Amino acid sequence: MSARREAELADLVAHIQKAGGRAHALVCDVADPEAAAAAVRRADELMGSLDMVVANAGIGHASHATRLGVEEIVRMVDINVRGAFATLVAAIPIMLAHQRGHLVGVSSLAGRRAIPASGAYSASKAALSTFLETLRLDLARTRILVTDVQPGFVETPILEGARNPTPFKWPVARATRYIADGLAKERRVVSFPLPLDLLTRLSRVLPAGVYARAVGGFREG
Ligand SMILES: NC(=O)c1ccc[n+]([C@@H]2O[C@H](COP(=O)([O-])OP(=O)(O)OC[C@H]3O[C@@H](n4cnc5c(N)ncnc54)[C@H](OP(=O)(O)O)[C@@H]3O)[C@@H](O)[C@H]2O)c1
After folding, report:
1. How crowded is the C-beta side of 170, counted as CA atoms within 13 Å?
2. From the CB of residue 98, how many other CB atoms can be counted at a distance below 10 Å?
3. Ligand 1 pocket: which residues have CB below 6 Å?
4. Which is catalytic among the residues 79, 81, 121, 196?
5. How does pLDDT run across 110-127, given as a tens digit for each residue?
């Protein structure tokens, strides 16, 4: 497991070890793509192989176009895009050498069509989903699987202070169970909940003007 907060990682490692599992903590800020890639290589050394790599780290907060700052855009792209891309790409040569593996990116339904007042987040997830699809095409003749996880809303700290509505929100336990089941079934895309999955599918085929009227847009404030 890898993240920035050492104490939380240590707690999780202890929890997994107590349950009879094997875990290591690697403190890393994926905003530094070299550090993200180094963490993946270190995980391979520690575990002896990489069955699955999950590029999960992400930040997100809604910001209306009139309030978007360059600093927050850069931070979003550094973590959600560059960090995720670097994590996934670093695993490919290792998985090719082991002749198997599973690459997973945690994107979002927000990547399917522009979400009002969430331009940077929505675009970062669209980039990740497109990247994952390309990896799947490029690796089709290998034994490396690629899964794009596209959640709707899940009750985690990322939603704290959310200004946009968060319909059909799932508790963490339900979401993690659903994702784990989808990964075990080797699905290409794991998306939920069904109502938002269907609505966002529909949104992709709507002409721009119809979509704009449907979502209404958000005024500043
Ligand atoms: N919750 C939702 O409604 C929702 C919906 C769709 C998609 N997602 C996606 O799901 C993923 C997980 O989010 P979450 O909902 O679980 O949010 P969260 O509770 O805020 O968790 C974010 C995780 O990413 C790690 N992280 C953040 N920045 C990092 C960095 N620079 N380097 C390394 N690790 C970093 C955090 O650990 P540290 O702080 O210790 O680094 C934490 O473990 C994200 O990619 C998010 O976009 C969430």
Report:
1. 18
2. 15
3. 3-5, 8, 28-31, 56-60, 79, 106, 108, 151, 153-154, 156-159
4. 121
5. 999 999 999 999 999 999
CA distance 10 to 68: 35
Say how many C-beta atoms besides its own lie within 10 A of residue 134's C-beta: 11
Q: Which region holds residue 99: left if phi is over 0, alpha if psi is between -120 and 50, else beta?
A: left
pTM of the model: 0.96
Distance 66 CA to ligand 1 centre (A): 25
Reading the block at residue 137, the tokens are 């095409």
The domains found in the chain, sorted by start residue, are 51-208 (3.40.50.720)
Give the model confidence (pLDDT) of 15-38 as tens digits. 999 999 999 999 999 999 999 999
CA distance 166 to 198: 16
For residue 46, which phi and psi values (nearest 5 degrees)?
-70, -40
